[in-house]
Amino acid sequence: MVKSKDELIHDHNHDGIDRRGFLKCMAWAGTGALCVIQGGILKSYSLSQMSQWREKEKGHLSFVQISDSHMGFNKAANPDVVATLKAAVDKINGLATPPEFLLHTGDISHLSKTEEFDTVDQILKSAAAKDVFFVPGEHDVLNDDGKQYLERYGKASQGAGWYSFDKNGIHFIGLVNVLNLKPGGLGTLGPEQLEWMKKDVQHLKQSTPIVVFAHIPLWLVYPEWGWGTQDSAQALGFLKKFGSVTVLNGHVHQTMQKIEGNVTFHTAASTAFPQPQPGKAGSPGPMKVPTDQLKSVLGITNVKQVQGQHALAVIDSTLG
Amino acid sequence: MKRICVCIAAMAMSLGTVALLPESKRVSAHAQQGAPAGTGVKIDNFSFGPETLKVAVGATVTWTNRDDIPHTVVSTTGTFKSKILDTDDKFSFTFSKPGTYPYFCSIHPKMTGKVVVQ
Question: What is the structure's pLDDT at B53?
Fold first, then answer.
C-alpha cells in the first residue's frame, strides 16, 4: 500500500502510463481510489484527497456501478450476501452526490433462481437511485439460456438482452457476453450483437462520451481463467472515433483499471465475495478472508462526469 | 502512442475430436451414489479430474461438483448436458458406444475434459 505519496501524474500523450504508475493505481483501487484523466494526463488521488476534489464536480451526472451480488451464495467466503448487498446500498445512500441510477454488471443471482432475483430487486428498491440498469452474468442465465433474465430485466432490450440509452449526453451501451460460450473459449458477444452495436454508434458524434458495460471484462485480464471476451476487439473497434470511452465490467470480483488511448477499462468489486488476483491461486473461485476483513474487499464504484474533463471519473470505495 | 499491455497470454486450447453419436441413455442425478472407482470425475478448483477419463463401453460416468461455485457438464457435440450442478450435486451419463466424448463447463468454458469409451 502506498501511503506516503498519494498523487500520481503521468503524461499520457506521448509516453503512455508506465507500468509502475499503473500498478500504483491498481494498488490504491483496492482500498478506494480515484483515477481520472485530465486533458490526456492520468491523475490518481487517494480517498483522503476526495473532499477537496468534490468541490469541482457539482451538478454533473453521477451513477454507481455494483456487481456480482451472487444472491443465494452461502459458502464460507460469505455466508450472508444479503447483508453485504444491503451494506452496499447503505454506502450508495451515503454518497455526497446521490447517483441518478445504478448499473448492475451481472451475476445478480448465484443460481438463476426466481427468489434470488426477487431478493436483489427488493434490496435495491431501498437505494436512493430508483433506476437500475442490468446486464446478465453467467450465473443469471443458467439452465434456460437467459429466458427468465430477459423476461425480468430485458423487456426493452434487443437479442439476448443488449441495449443502449442516453443520459446527460452520455451514450450507454449494455452488452451481453455470457451466452453461447464455446469450449476452451472466453466471453462472447457474437456477430448479431456486434452488428447491432456497430449500427447503434455509427450516427453518434465523436465528442459523445461512451460508457460500455458488460459482465465479463472486455479486455484480456487473465485468459487462463477465462477473464476476457473473445470478440471484444471488434466491439472496441467501433468506438475508435470517440474521444472518451469508459468500459465497466464485473466478473473478476476485484477492482482493476487499464487505460489505453482514450479508453478507460475498469472492473468493479463484488458485493458478495472476493476472488484471487490473477494467477495468485489455483483457480478463480471464492476467496475466504478473515470475517472482519470481508467488507474491505467488497465495494461499489461511483462514476462521475466532470465539467471540463473529457473522461469520466471512476471512484471505487469499499464497504467497510 | 504506446499502449499498456497488462496481461499478455496466448490462449491455446482445441478440442478437435469427433465423437460418435451413441444411443446412450441418461440416468438421473444421484442415481449413481456408489459409482465404482474409475468412472467418477471430480469437479474441483475449476477443473475436471481426471481431464481424460477412459471407460469401457456401457460404463456410467458420474461427475461430482466439489467447488463452491456451480458448474455444468456439457458435451461439445450435444451428446449429453447436465443441469446446473451446485456444490456436491452429481450428474451421470451412460456411454453405450465407443468413441471420444469431449465436454466442457458451459459457464466456465476454459474447463474442458473428455471421456474415452473403449
Answer: 98
Structural domains for chain A: 62-318 (3.60.21.10)
Give B1's contacts in chain A (Cβ within 8 Å).
13-14, 16, 261
User: Which CATH class, in words, describes the domain spanning B43-117?
Assistant: mainly beta
The whole-angstrom separation of Cα A238 and Cα A225 is 26
**Average pLDDT taken over every residue of chain A:** 85
Location of C-alpha cell 440509452 = A165
**CB atoms < 10 A from the CB of A155, how many?**
9
Residue A309 is predicted with a pLDDT of: 72
Quote the cell numbers at residue A259: 487505460
CA distance A171 to A200: 10
Q: Minimal Cα distance from B69: which residue of A? A: A285
Instruction: Report the alpha-carbon distance of residue A285 to residue A253 in Å, rounded.
Output: 10
The letter for the amino acid at A248 is L
Give the global pTM. Answer: 0.81
Name the residue among A17, A22, A184 with its Cβ closest to that of B112.
A184
Out of A111, A282, A283, the one facing B70 most closely (by C-beta) is A111
Q: Is the pLDDT of residue A28 over 50?
A: no
The CA distance from A25 to A208, in Å, is: 26
Pick from B72, B86, B109: CB nearest A185: B109
Amino acid at A201: V
Give the residue from A79, A67, A144, A134 showing the smallest Cα distance to A112: A144
Q: Which of B5, B7, B42, B100 to mutate to test the interface with A (most CBs of A within 10 A)?
A: B7
Which range has the worst mean pLDDT, A129-143, A160-174, B31-45?
B31-45
Query: Exposed (0-12), middle (13-18) or buried (19+): which is A100, by Cβ within 10 Å?
Result: middle
Are A320 and A33 spatial neighbours (Cβ–Cβ below 8 Å)? Answer: no
Q: Is A282 an 8 Å CB contact of chain B? A: yes
Q: Which residues contact B105 (CB under 8 A, 6 or more apart)?
A: B43, B48, B71, B72, B73, B74, B111, B112
ipTM higher than the 0.85 cut: no
The 3 state secondary structure assigned to A113-126 is: CHHHHHHHHHHHCC
Nearest CA in chain B to A75: B68
Report d(CA A92, CA A87) in Å as an integer.
9
Element (H, E) at A152: helix A147-153
B14–A contact, CB cutoff 8 A: yes
Asked if the Cβ–Cβ distance from B83 to A143 is below 8 Å, we say yes
